[in-house]
Each structure stands twice: as structure tokens, then as C-alpha cells.
Specification:
mainly alpha; 2 domains
Length: 84
């Protein structure tokens, strides 16, 4: 019975630490969101809903370029983090 309780406490600690890590990551994402949006505003990228079809196309292109760039960064950082 005592072993089951230790296992249970271990699982609780693991769950709490994962939840806190996720919460901290969310806060970091919010901060970086402001930085990225500020950078896009400086470049003149559209920051509101498009008013015409050309604005929609520009928004889609910007979103695709940023998505590809972020995926490459995730891969690079993942490889860097997995080095022994």
C-alpha cells in the first residue's frame, strides 16, 4: 500500500511539473507573440483582416513563410538540444 502511494505521489509531481512547464511555455509564447507582431508591423506586413483579395494573399504568404521558418528553427533547436 505504501508503494502505491509513493507511485501516486510521483505521478502527481510529474503531472504538476509538466503543467507548470506548459504554463511557463505559454507565457513565453505570449511574450514572443508581441515581439513577432511588432517586428511584422515594422516591415509593413498586414496586421488586420484583409480588405481585398491581394491583402489575403499577402497574409497567407507571410503566414507560410513564418511557418516554414519556425519549423526549421524547431528542427535545429531540437537537434541542438539532443546533443550529448
Amino acid at each position: 500500500m505504501a508503494d502505491e502511494r509513493k507511485l501516486s505521489m510521483s505521478e502527481v509531481r510529474k503531472t504538476i511539473s509538466t503543467s507548470l512547464g506548459s504554463a511557463f511555455g505559454f507565457v513565453i509564447a505570449l511574450v514572443w507573440s508581441n515581439v513577432v507582431l511588432g517586428g511584422l508591423a515594422l516591415t509593413g506586413a498586414p496586421m488586420t483582416a484583409p480588405k481585398d483579395p491581394a491583402g489575403l494573399v499577402i497574409g497567407i504568404v507571410v503566414a507560410l513563410v513564418l511557418t516554414i521558418f519556425m519549423i526549421v528553427l524547431i528542427i535545429v533547436i531540437g537537434r541542438w538540444g539532443s546533443k550529448a
